[in-house]
Amino acid sequence: MKNILVVGLFLITSHTWASQELAQVIACHEALDGKSDSRTFKLEVTSPTPFTLISGKRIFFITSDSIHVLDHKYAGQSMTVKLEEKGQPFYRTINFQNDGTIGNVSFEDTTKEAKAQAVSPKSQLDPDSIALLKKELLRQMNSVTGEYQNKYDPEDTLHALNICRKVESKELQASIDKQSAFYEKLLHRKSKITYQKSRSGYK
């Protein structure tokens, strides 16, 4: 009986940890939206989740409270996926290109016929899935300085980087330090130019 309680407590603790990790990953992913080169595809334009990531022969669907996995066998086809987002059923029809990448996502109301044939991915909120998402975040983070528009608003970019600091990953933290140093220099330069302009305006 004691062993069962210990195992149960371990599972609860592990799930709580994974849920917290997922929340931090989602927040970072949203912060980097439009500021990095991303391989993810958002399934809802007005919300941070759900979004999807194709890795190898699997498709990962990230919702607000879990990660769902599906074997990828839809190259050159379309499919409707059924997820649960914030306690409500969520449907999206996705068209895949011949190479397996996402061609487009339909944001129109899903028909009854499509809902009846929808595929429900397996929930898989585990350390390996979290690690995969962190690896994608690292790739995105390394691309931040390559996105030219970020240079025009270094303060906003630094704010996004600070949100990502909550994600536990040594590699990600090292990349954030590198990116932050670059944008802090830009912010200092921008502040100096603004100050000089304001001073000259009084002459």
Structure explained in plain terms:
With 203 residues, this protein is of the alpha+beta class. The protein has five helices and eight strands, in the order αβββββββαβααα. The chain has helices at 2-31, 112-116, 127-142, 154-164, 170-200; strands at residues 41-42, 51-55, 58-62, 67-71, 78-85, 88-96, 102-106, 122-123. The strands form two sheets. It has a five-stranded antiparallel sheet with strand order 1-2-3-4-8, covered by helices on one side. A hairpin with a 2-residue loop joins strand 2 (51-55) and strand 3 (58-62). Mean pLDDT is 88; it is low at 5-13.
What's a concise summary of this model?
The protein is α+β, with helices and mostly antiparallel strands. 46% of the residues lie in helices and 20% in strands. The protein contains five helices and eight strands, in the order αβββββββαβααα.
Approximate helicity band: 40-55%
The helix-and-strand class reads alpha+beta
Q: How many alpha or pi helices?
A: 5
Q: What's the pLDDT, averaged over the residues?
A: 88
Radius of gyration: 21 Å
Gross morphology is elongated
Which H/E pattern describes the elements?
Answer: HEEEEEEEHEHHH
Distance from N terminus to C terminus (CA atoms, Å) equals: 82 Å
Number of strands: 8
- List segments where confidence is low: pLDDT < 50 over at least 5 consecutive residues: 5-13
* Spatial sequence of strands, sheet with the most strands: 1-2-3-4-8
- The portion of residues forming beta strands comes to 15-25%
Please summarize the sheet with the most strands: 5 strands, antiparallel
